Amino acid sequence: MSEDRHPLFMPLILVGGMIFGFGLGFSQMARPEVVLNFLQFEDFGLLFVMFGAAIVSGIAFAVMPRIRDSAPLTGDRYERRLKPFDRNVLIGGAIFGVGWGLSGICPGAAYASLGVGNVTILWAIAGMFAGAYLQGVWRSKRAAAATAPVGAD
Question: Any stretches that span the bilayer, and where are they (predicted)?
């Protein structure tokens, strides 16, 4: 990423986050019970919210690289950054899905849920931070074990 960002970069990130949070609150997706109803095939409103986001994002990702060579506020070139579909993606996605199903909330909606007055969601947010921290510790230990000397004479 470019270090010489446009001065409006951070304020626009804030505005984008506010629009995202407002949209989650307005669509009721910041309420865990609505998300759980979706996961139990009782309310398909979340599907329409996700399709709306996918359509807007898809159009932006298809059109912007044809209009400009680089992002207007960062100067970073538009390029595809594909992550291979591997074992880690599959296992991580499954774990994320279990957490989403148990709590009824995903990370973005959890913060928006605070904005609509759901203070008990702090438990889920604390769990997300603890889980991410534990995963980081686990990954660091695995990396250290992989680079440790095999044996000493």
Answer: 7-26, 46-67, 88-110, 116-134
CB-based burial, 45-73: b 16+ in 10 Å, e otherwise: ebeebeeeeeeeeeeeeeeeeeeeeebeb
d(CA 32, CA 113): 8
Domain that holds residue 19: 9-147
What is the number of domains present in the chain? 1
In a domain, 68, yes or no: yes
Report yes or no on 52 lying in a domain.
Answer: yes
pLDDT in tens, 47-65: 888 898 899 989 988 888 8
pTM flag (> 0.70):
no
pLDDT in tens, 93-135: 999 889 888 888 888 888 888 888 888 889 989 999 999 999 9
